[in-house]
Amino acid sequence: MNKDSRNTPLFFITDQLEFPNVESANSEGLLAVGGDLSSERLMLAYRSGIFPWFNQDSLILWWSPNPRMVLFPKKIKISKSMGKVLRDGSFILSKNTCFEKVLEYCAKVPREGQQGTWITPDMRKAYLRLHKLGFAHSYEVWQNDLLVGGLYGVDLGHVFCGESMFSTVANASKFAFISLARELEKKNYRLIDCQLHTPHLASLGAVEIPRSEFSRILKKGI
Question: 5-65 is classed in which CATH architecture?
Answer without folding.
Answer: 2-Layer Sandwich (3.30)
